[in-house]
């Protein structure tokens, strides 16, 4: 009984205090346009000891309120999305830019410290990064099982990304290099990822965007894994390839399906979101039908731009179905805390809005 009493006395001060302070300050901002976090915490502590228990919680209150003030509320009921987009495309009063541009710029304001990229910056790993400025955060990077005696053998330029209802639902990764192809297959196997989404051609604008990491006609061996091409289906906007992957060490095998979207233009974004939305639907349907419990691995070239769009829209469309609300800003912001530069350009950001609207129905339908 004493233990129970102790736990009850300890509860209801830390996180509860944070919630109460943030709620009170949001009200105060709305009515008085002022903030006094220190004063409010002091007042609460006079009424109940230890309200807001740790320095981390105190910092969190400041961060949360700063975000509320700078970013505002970007969640929109789906039925109001058309009107919200219309508003975002207007030039902001007193500014020389649209609301959409401002919203995208706000995303870029939080920069990551280089200490967050420990493994990616190691000399033994630097050559494994396709672009020197796009690397996975240490906290969310996908770790491979280390190979004894091989320094950096646990590293691949890939990040775990949370989905709408599931943690680590996706792996966002760069298009494999010739030197990292074996690591890529090792990652798929070790993390039980049996669905791969490819959002680039092998070459675009005269440059290699991704090494051909799969065999075209006959089986090939990548370190421990034998990959057999089983089937290839050419659809209007994508190619579906099926491979049998066998671990040569114990003879275990599984099927990996690769969806390559072929309709993304070499510059900019698709004119219509409809084809991409259908593609997302097809990938998720196949995952439900055949996929193991592992994440969907998504890559373009650097693994942030088109990859970010695919994951953003996957989350946004699912949330729309279940909750009837849309928040593209916070979805992209959340993705960027897990991998830098997700949804890389303003074009791509705007495309997310457009595709979400097209998912709801035609422009004309929502204009009336």
> How are strands sequenced across the largest beta sheet?
2-3-11-4-10-9-8-7
What is the CATH-assigned architecture of the largest domain? Alpha-Beta Complex
CATH class wording of the largest domain: Alpha Beta
Main β-sheet, in a few words? 8 strands, mixed
The proportion of residues in beta strands is: 15-25%
Domain module count: 2
Secondary-structure element series:
HHHHEHHEEHEEEEEEEHEHEHHH
Low-confidence stretches: 1-10, 362-368
- Specify the CATH homologous superfamily of the largest domain: Protein tyrosine phosphatase superfamily
Mean pLDDT: 91
Percent of residues in helices: 40-55%
The CATH topology of the largest domain is: Protein-Tyrosine Phosphatase, Chain A
For the termini, the CA-CA separation is: 63 Å
Shape: globular
Gyration radius from CA atoms, angstroms:
24 Å
Q: How many beta-strand elements?
A: 12
Can you describe what's shown?
The structure is a single chain. By secondary structure, the protein is α/β, with parallel strands linked by helices. The protein folds into 2 domains: about 10-70; about 115-365, Protein tyrosine phosphatase superfamily (Protein-Tyrosine Phosphatase, Chain A). It is about 40% helix and about 15% strand. It has helices at about 1-10, 15-30, 35-45, 55-70, 80-90, 100-110, 180-190, 275-290, 305-325, 330-335, 345-360, 365; strands at about 75, 160, 170-175, 195-200, 205, 205-210, 220, 225-235, 240-245, 255-260, 295-300, 325. An 8-stranded mixed β-sheet has the order 2-3-11-4-10-9-8-7. The protein has a two-stranded antiparallel ribbon with strand order 1-12. A hairpin with a 5-residue loop joins strand 9 and strand 10 (about 255-260). The N and C termini lie far apart (about 65 Å).
């Amino acid at each position: 009984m004493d233990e129970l009493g102790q736990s009850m006395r300890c509860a209801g001060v830390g996180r509860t205090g944070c919630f109460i302070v943030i709620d009170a300050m949001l009200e105060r901002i709305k009515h008085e346009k002022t903030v006094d976090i220190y004063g409010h915490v002091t007042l609460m502590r006079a009424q109940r000891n230890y309200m807001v228990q740790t320095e981390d919680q105190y910092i969190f209150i400041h961060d949360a309120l700063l975000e509320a003030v700078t970013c505002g509320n970007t969640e929109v009921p789906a039925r109001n999305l058309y009107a919200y987009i219309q508003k975002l495309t207007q030039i902001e009063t007193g500014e020389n830019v649209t609301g959409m541009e401002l919203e995208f710029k706000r995303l870029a304001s939080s920069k990551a410290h280089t200490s967050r990229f420990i493994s990616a910056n190691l000399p033994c790993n630097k050559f494994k990064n396709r672009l020197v400025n796009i690397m996975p955060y240490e906290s969310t990077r996908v770790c491979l099982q280390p190979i004894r005696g091989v320094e950096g053998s646990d590293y691949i330029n890939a990040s775990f990304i949370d989905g709408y209802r599931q943690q680590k639902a996706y792996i966002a990764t760069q298009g494999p290099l010739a030197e990292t192809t074996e690591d890529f297959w090792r990652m798929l196997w070790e993390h039980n990822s049996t669905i791969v989404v490819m959002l680039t051609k092998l070459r675009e604008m005269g440059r290699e965007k991704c090494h051909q990491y799969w065999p075209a006609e006959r089986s090939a061996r990548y370190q421990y894994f034998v990959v057999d091409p089983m089937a290839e289906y050419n659809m209007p906007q994508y190619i579906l390839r099926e491979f049998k992957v066998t671990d040569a060490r114990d003879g275990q095998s599984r099927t990996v399906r690769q969806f390559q979207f072929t309709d993304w233009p070499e510059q900019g974004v698709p004119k219509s979101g409809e084809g991409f939305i259908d593609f997302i639907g097809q990938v998720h349907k196949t995952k439900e039908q055949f996929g193991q419990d592992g994440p969907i691995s998504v890559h373009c070239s650097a693994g942030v731009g088109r990859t970010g769009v695919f994951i953003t829209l996957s989350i946004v469309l699912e949330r729309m179905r279940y909750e009837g609300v849309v928040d593209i800003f916070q979805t992209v912001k959340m993705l960027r805390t897990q991998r830098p530069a997700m949804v890389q350009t303003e074009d791509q950001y705007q495309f997310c809005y457009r595709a979400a609207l097209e998912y709801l129905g035609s422009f004309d339908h929502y204009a009336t």
